[in-house]
Each structure stands twice: as C-alpha cells, then as structure tokens.
Design goal:
CATH superfamily of the largest domain: Ribonuclease E inhibitor RraA/RraA-like
Order of helices and strands: EEHHHEEEHHEHEHEEEEEEEHHHH
Number of strands: 14
CATH architecture of the largest domain: 3-Layer(bba) Sandwich
Shape: elongated
Number of helices: 11
Structural class: alpha/beta
C-alpha cells in the first residue's frame, strides 16, 4: 500500500523574523512493509480481556479467567435448569443450547470446565494462506486444527464452531482426541463432526458433544481464530466461560457468575432435599413446601441443616452461611 499526499506546516517567529513561514512537502510516498497487509490475529490476550471485563480474580497466561478447581468440581452437581436460571437472571440470555440435534457420546456424563474456543470457517485460499503463515511465524506446528489443542490446560474444555459441518468437517479423530484428553482431562463440544468414533470411545473419561460422526477427513475448512466469542447453535460461548453440559443441554456461564451459580444451586438443592424428606414423612403438605415457607418450616429447615451439617453433599461453609441471617441465600 502506498500513501500519497501533501503535508503543510506553518512556523511563527523564528529568530528575529516575525514570519509566518510555510513549509510544504509534496507527493510524499510511504511504502509499508508487505504492501501494508497486517497479519491476522489468531489469538490475543487483549481480546480475551475484552470478553471478560467483569472478572476480578486470577487469570491464565492467555488471559482467560481462572475459575477455581473447587468451583468446577461443585458445578458437576448443579442442574442445567438451575444454572440457566441464575445466568438468565443476570441478563445473559443467549447462553443456553438445548440438546436437540446433538450427538452426545455419553449423555449421563457431565462436561464441566473452563472454555477455550476456536472458530472455523469454509476455506478461503488467500486468507487461509495468511493464517498458516502467521501460525508458522508464531511457532505453531502442524495443521491449524491442532493449534487450539496445543493451548489446552488441565480443566479446559475445547469448544469449537465448525458451522455445523459433519461431512468433511471432522475436527478430530482418536489421535487428536487422546491429545486433548491428555492436555485437559476434559471432553469437547463441537458444532461440527468427529471421526474414528470407535477409537474415541476407548479414551476413558473423554466425552463428546458434536453434530455427528463421519469417516471423512477435514477438508475445505480453515481455522480463523482462537479464544474469541463463537456461536454454538443459538448461543454465544466466550473464552473463559465455565461450561456445564448435561443431557438436558449446554450452559455457557460467564466466569464471574460461576461461584454464584454454584452457591445458589447448592442452597436450592438443600431446600429440595429437606422438602422431599418432609413430604415423604407426611409432615407438611405440597402446598406448604411449594409456597412461601412459614416461620415453623424455616426453623425446622435450620434445625435439619444443623443436625446434618457434616453429612450433606455441600461444603460446610455453605451451610454455615445459610444459617447466618446476614449471609443466607435461601
């Protein structure tokens, strides 16, 4: 790219002369390197920070929020319904995708982790050439569909938008599947396809959500970006989200809401456990349990919490907070 133009400058009061003087340069030609073509941005910490402005905690090297392992472990017990209720209530209305149209390798095995995203598009020779050149300059190796895998850390879930392509849209087979599980210890969510399904099934603990399986290779597809917001079905997934995928659907939870989702869900779970128990005992009617609890039921619930504080499937601190009138969230 060549820039051509005229620059004018007025100088007043130099030395003893009053001026003004005018200095003009004409037809300045500036030649930018590589004809002025900026290299494509494959992955940028700055972009991740722009996606997660409400996070105030620790971040990973690539900029993604580091949601604590304890929160991820407790998230496994959260229902999709409860998670979606909290996220939607906070104003994030495009973060839930139902399971219709998805192939789930193990429907009863939850996928929970920190999201690392990748965006794929139909191949374009010119742009794909730039992507590959930039990847080489950054020290990346192999096919571009392996680059996101190289970036995975323990606790990450690889989430990719491959525009629903299954035939010739197989992002991984059993080799890359083993690499993913070795790096992350988690599964994948692909709006696209996979291949070598029998080999993938042999990876113990590895779960897959995808649009289907096909023996074809990945063709006419290019990887365009890593750790950017992507579309998964009718939802948006951002790098650093916490994903909760169960047979009912997928919820992409903004990182700053993850702990809130867990603690509020645990409070609901304990209320439900208590309510079901008392209904089976016949102590209260369904109307009493489903409606606003009377002071009598509330006191009964508090007594039940105190009695079972070391037996219930939530951290002791959560129960103590529920018993504290200043911090309770039920």
């Amino acid at each position: 790219m060549t820039l051509r133009g005229v620059i004018g400058l007025q100088v007043h009061g130099i030395g003893k002369d009053a001026g003004p003087y005018q200095v003009r340069w004409r037809n300045i030609r500036i030649k930018a390197a590589d004809d002025g073509v900026e290299p494509p941005v494959i992955s940028s910490r700055r972009q991740v920070l722009q996606c997660t402005p409400n996070w105030r905690g620790q971040r990973m090297q690539d900029g993604r929020p580091y949601v604590a392992d304890d929160i991820l472990e407790r998230m496994k017990n959260v229902s999709v319904t409860q998670a979606w209720s909290v996220v939607r209530g906070a104003g994030y209305r495009n973060c839930y995708e139902n399971a219709a149209g998805w192939f789930i390798l193990y429907p009863n095995q939850a996928i929970v982790g920190r999201v690392l995203t990748a965006q794929y598009m139909p191949s374009h020779p010119d742009y794909n050439r730039l992507i590959m050149q930039q990847g080489l300059a950054e020290g990346r190796f192999g096919s571009s569909n392996s680059w996101p895998i190289d970036m995975l850390k323990k606790g990450d879930v690889y989430v990719a938008d491959c525009f629903g392509k299954v035939l010739d849209g197989t992002l991984i087979g059993d080799n890359l599947g083993n690499a993913i599980y070795s790096n992350s210890g988690k599964g994948v969510i692909f709006d696209g396809g996979v291949r070598d399904l029998e080999g993938i099934e042999e990876i113990e603990g590895f779960n897959v959500w995808c649009k289907g399986a096909d023996p074809s290779f990945l063709r006419e597809v290019m990887m365009t970006a890593i750790n950017v917001p992507i579309r998964i079905g009718k939802t948006v997934a951002c790098p650093g989200d916490v994903v909760l995928a169960k047979r009912e659907g997928i919820v992409f939870i903004p990182a700053h809401l993850a702990e809130k989702v867990v603690t509020e869900s645990e409070a609901v779970m304990l209320r439900d456990m208590f309510g079901h128990l008392r209904l089976k005992e016949g102590k209260y009617t369904p109307g009493q349990i489903d409606g606003r609890w009377s002071p009598e039921i509330q006191e009964d619930f508090r007594g039940w919490l105190k009695k079972n504080v070391n037996k219930l499937p939530v951290p002791k601190q959560v129960i103590e907070d529920m018993l504290n009138p200043k911090t309770r969230n039920w």
